[in-house]
Specification:
heterodimer, A: mainly beta, six-stranded mixed beta sheet, five-stranded antiparallel beta sheet, B: about 110 residues, mainly beta, seven-stranded mixed beta sheet, four-stranded antiparallel beta sheet, about 55% strand
Chain lengths: ~110, ~110
Protein backbone atom coordinates (compact mmCIF):
# COMPACT_ATOMS: atom_id res chain seq x y z
CA UNK A 1 0.00 0.00 0.00
CA UNK A 2 1.04 3.62 -0.38
CA UNK A 3 2.15 4.02 3.20
CA UNK A 4 4.68 6.62 4.21
CA UNK A 5 7.44 5.69 6.59
CA UNK A 6 8.91 8.24 8.93
CA UNK A 7 12.47 8.33 10.10
CA UNK A 8 13.70 8.44 12.80
CA UNK A 9 11.14 6.63 14.94
CA UNK A 10 12.12 8.76 17.92
CA UNK A 11 13.99 12.02 18.29
CA UNK A 12 15.06 13.82 21.44
CA UNK A 13 16.40 17.37 21.35
CA UNK A 14 16.69 20.43 23.56
CA UNK A 15 14.62 23.55 23.30
CA UNK A 16 15.96 25.92 20.70
CA UNK A 17 17.41 23.18 18.51
CA UNK A 18 16.03 22.25 15.12
CA UNK A 19 14.24 18.95 14.55
CA UNK A 20 14.21 17.17 11.20
CA UNK A 21 11.94 14.26 10.39
CA UNK A 22 11.89 12.36 7.14
CA UNK A 23 9.20 10.49 5.28
CA UNK A 24 9.62 8.05 2.42
CA UNK A 25 6.87 6.64 0.26
CA UNK A 26 6.66 4.10 -2.53
CA UNK A 27 4.52 5.24 -5.45
CA UNK A 28 3.80 8.53 -7.17
CA UNK A 29 1.72 11.07 -5.30
CA UNK A 30 -0.33 14.18 -5.98
CA UNK A 31 0.41 15.62 -2.57
CA UNK A 32 1.73 14.75 0.86
CA UNK A 33 0.46 15.93 4.22
CA UNK A 34 2.06 16.23 7.64
CA UNK A 35 0.12 15.89 10.89
CA UNK A 36 0.98 16.29 14.55
CA UNK A 37 -0.47 14.24 17.39
CA UNK A 38 -0.06 15.34 20.98
CA UNK A 39 -0.28 12.61 23.59
CA UNK A 40 -3.86 11.47 24.09
CA UNK A 41 -5.22 13.74 21.37
CA UNK A 42 -6.38 13.52 17.79
CA UNK A 43 -4.19 14.41 14.83
CA UNK A 44 -3.84 18.01 13.75
CA UNK A 45 -3.06 18.97 10.17
CA UNK A 46 0.18 20.92 9.78
CA UNK A 47 0.88 21.35 6.12
CA UNK A 48 0.08 19.96 2.67
CA UNK A 49 2.67 20.03 -0.09
CA UNK A 50 1.72 19.31 -3.69
CA UNK A 51 3.80 17.20 -6.03
CA UNK A 52 4.80 20.24 -8.08
CA UNK A 53 6.11 22.05 -5.00
CA UNK A 54 9.60 21.56 -3.64
CA UNK A 55 9.35 23.49 -0.43
CA UNK A 56 6.68 25.02 1.75
CA UNK A 57 6.81 27.07 4.93
CA UNK A 58 4.36 27.64 7.74
CA UNK A 59 5.65 29.56 10.73
CA UNK A 60 8.53 27.54 12.20
CA UNK A 61 7.75 24.59 9.94
CA UNK A 62 9.50 23.92 6.67
CA UNK A 63 8.52 20.99 4.50
CA UNK A 64 10.42 19.78 1.47
CA UNK A 65 9.40 17.27 -1.14
CA UNK A 66 11.67 15.37 -3.49
CA UNK A 67 9.49 13.34 -5.83
CA UNK A 68 12.52 11.81 -7.57
CA UNK A 69 13.59 10.27 -4.27
CA UNK A 70 10.02 9.76 -3.09
CA UNK A 71 10.78 11.50 0.15
CA UNK A 72 9.72 14.48 2.22
CA UNK A 73 11.18 16.16 5.26
CA UNK A 74 9.66 18.24 8.04
CA UNK A 75 11.91 20.74 9.76
CA UNK A 76 10.85 22.43 12.97
CA UNK A 77 13.11 25.35 13.76
CA UNK A 78 13.81 26.76 17.22
CA UNK A 79 11.88 23.94 18.86
CA UNK A 80 9.86 24.42 22.03
CA UNK A 81 8.74 22.00 24.71
CA UNK A 82 5.22 22.37 23.30
CA UNK A 83 6.43 20.78 20.05
CA UNK A 84 6.72 17.46 21.89
CA UNK A 85 4.39 15.18 19.94
CA UNK A 86 4.29 12.49 17.29
CA UNK A 87 4.55 13.61 13.69
CA UNK A 88 3.04 11.68 10.80
CA UNK A 89 3.27 11.99 7.07
CA UNK A 90 0.29 10.90 5.01
CA UNK A 91 -0.20 10.07 1.37
CA UNK A 92 -3.17 9.01 -0.68
CA UNK A 93 -4.60 5.54 -0.19
CA UNK A 94 -5.11 3.30 -3.21
CA UNK A 95 -8.72 4.42 -3.50
CA UNK A 96 -7.63 8.05 -3.53
CA UNK A 97 -10.29 8.86 -1.00
CA UNK A 98 -8.41 8.40 2.24
CA UNK A 99 -4.97 8.88 3.69
CA UNK A 100 -2.37 6.30 4.53
CA UNK A 101 -0.31 7.31 7.52
CA UNK A 102 3.18 6.27 8.44
CA UNK A 103 4.09 5.06 11.91
CA UNK A 104 5.23 8.49 12.96
CA UNK A 105 8.25 10.12 14.54
CA UNK A 106 8.01 10.68 18.27
CA UNK A 107 9.65 14.02 19.09
CA UNK A 108 10.66 14.94 22.63
CA UNK A 109 11.81 18.51 23.26
CA UNK A 110 13.32 19.03 26.67
CA UNK A 111 13.64 22.44 28.34
CA UNK B 1 -16.72 25.17 19.48
CA UNK B 2 -15.67 21.57 18.98
CA UNK B 3 -15.20 20.79 15.30
CA UNK B 4 -15.22 16.98 15.47
CA UNK B 5 -16.50 15.36 18.62
CA UNK B 6 -16.68 11.73 19.65
CA UNK B 7 -18.43 9.96 22.47
CA UNK B 8 -17.50 8.26 24.63
CA UNK B 9 -13.86 9.23 25.20
CA UNK B 10 -13.18 6.00 27.06
CA UNK B 11 -14.95 2.67 26.71
CA UNK B 12 -14.11 -0.38 28.78
CA UNK B 13 -16.10 -3.51 28.07
CA UNK B 14 -15.91 -7.27 28.12
CA UNK B 15 -15.37 -9.64 25.24
CA UNK B 16 -18.53 -10.56 23.40
CA UNK B 17 -20.33 -7.31 24.13
CA UNK B 18 -21.70 -4.93 21.50
CA UNK B 19 -20.81 -1.25 21.68
CA UNK B 20 -21.20 1.94 19.67
CA UNK B 21 -19.09 5.06 19.24
CA UNK B 22 -20.64 8.26 17.99
CA UNK B 23 -19.09 11.04 15.97
CA UNK B 24 -20.37 14.45 14.99
CA UNK B 25 -18.79 17.28 13.00
CA UNK B 26 -20.03 20.86 12.84
CA UNK B 27 -17.76 21.95 10.02
CA UNK B 28 -20.25 21.38 7.24
CA UNK B 29 -17.96 18.79 5.66
CA UNK B 30 -19.21 16.22 3.20
CA UNK B 31 -16.83 13.40 4.09
CA UNK B 32 -16.23 11.53 7.32
CA UNK B 33 -13.85 8.75 8.28
CA UNK B 34 -13.15 6.16 10.94
CA UNK B 35 -9.53 5.27 11.71
CA UNK B 36 -8.10 2.74 14.14
CA UNK B 37 -4.82 3.49 15.94
CA UNK B 38 -3.07 0.55 17.56
CA UNK B 39 -0.74 0.51 20.52
CA UNK B 40 2.22 1.28 18.25
CA UNK B 41 0.46 4.41 17.00
CA UNK B 42 -0.13 2.94 13.55
CA UNK B 43 -3.20 4.63 12.11
CA UNK B 44 -5.31 2.69 9.63
CA UNK B 45 -8.37 3.78 7.66
CA UNK B 46 -11.46 1.68 8.28
CA UNK B 47 -14.38 3.43 6.61
CA UNK B 48 -15.30 6.61 4.86
CA UNK B 49 -18.66 8.16 4.01
CA UNK B 50 -19.28 10.94 1.56
CA UNK B 51 -22.66 12.61 1.87
CA UNK B 52 -24.03 9.61 3.79
CA UNK B 53 -22.77 7.12 1.20
CA UNK B 54 -20.09 4.57 1.96
CA UNK B 55 -17.04 5.13 -0.25
CA UNK B 56 -14.33 3.26 1.61
CA UNK B 57 -14.70 -0.07 3.31
CA UNK B 58 -11.26 -1.41 4.06
CA UNK B 59 -10.55 -4.96 5.14
CA UNK B 60 -12.37 -4.76 8.42
CA UNK B 61 -14.26 -7.61 10.11
CA UNK B 62 -17.97 -7.39 9.42
CA UNK B 63 -18.49 -7.11 13.17
CA UNK B 64 -17.77 -3.43 12.53
CA UNK B 65 -20.66 -1.56 10.97
CA UNK B 66 -20.64 2.17 10.30
CA UNK B 67 -23.78 4.19 9.95
CA UNK B 68 -24.25 7.75 8.75
CA UNK B 69 -27.72 9.10 9.54
CA UNK B 70 -26.78 12.45 7.99
CA UNK B 71 -23.60 13.98 6.70
CA UNK B 72 -22.73 15.50 10.07
CA UNK B 73 -22.78 12.18 11.90
CA UNK B 74 -20.90 8.93 11.50
CA UNK B 75 -21.33 6.23 14.10
CA UNK B 76 -19.45 2.98 14.52
CA UNK B 77 -21.10 -0.11 15.94
CA UNK B 78 -19.01 -3.10 16.95
CA UNK B 79 -20.55 -6.51 17.60
CA UNK B 80 -19.06 -9.37 19.59
CA UNK B 81 -16.04 -7.41 20.77
CA UNK B 82 -12.69 -9.19 20.83
CA UNK B 83 -9.47 -8.47 22.71
CA UNK B 84 -7.81 -7.40 19.46
CA UNK B 85 -10.36 -4.62 19.04
CA UNK B 86 -8.68 -2.71 21.85
CA UNK B 87 -7.32 0.46 20.28
CA UNK B 88 -8.02 4.15 19.92
CA UNK B 89 -10.67 4.91 17.31
CA UNK B 90 -10.58 8.29 15.60
CA UNK B 91 -13.28 9.96 13.64
CA UNK B 92 -12.25 12.56 11.09
CA UNK B 93 -13.87 14.75 8.47
CA UNK B 94 -12.82 16.64 5.37
CA UNK B 95 -14.52 19.18 3.15
CA UNK B 96 -14.75 16.74 0.26
CA UNK B 97 -13.57 13.20 -0.41
CA UNK B 98 -10.01 12.82 -1.55
CA UNK B 99 -6.46 12.89 -0.29
CA UNK B 100 -6.02 16.52 -1.35
CA UNK B 101 -8.17 17.69 1.51
CA UNK B 102 -7.04 18.39 5.02
CA UNK B 103 -8.64 16.10 7.56
CA UNK B 104 -9.92 17.22 10.94
CA UNK B 105 -9.73 14.63 13.68
CA UNK B 106 -11.80 14.06 16.76
CA UNK B 107 -10.17 13.47 20.16
CA UNK B 108 -10.42 9.70 19.87
CA UNK B 109 -12.22 6.94 21.76
CA UNK B 110 -10.00 4.59 23.72
CA UNK B 111 -11.63 1.17 23.62
CA UNK B 112 -10.40 -1.46 26.04
CA UNK B 113 -11.77 -4.96 25.75
CA UNK B 114 -11.18 -7.23 28.73
Amino acid sequence: SQQGEEDPQALSIQEGENATMNCSYKTSINNLQWYRQNSGRGLVHLILIRSNEREKHSGRLRVTLDTSKKSSSLLITASRAADTASYFCATSSNSGYALNFGKGTSLLVTP
Amino acid sequence: DTAVSQTPKYLVTQMGNDKSIKCEQNLGHDTMYWYKQDSKKFLKIMFSYNNKELIINETVPNRFSPKSPDKAHLNLHINSLELGDSAVYFCASSQLAGASYEQYFGPGTRLTVT
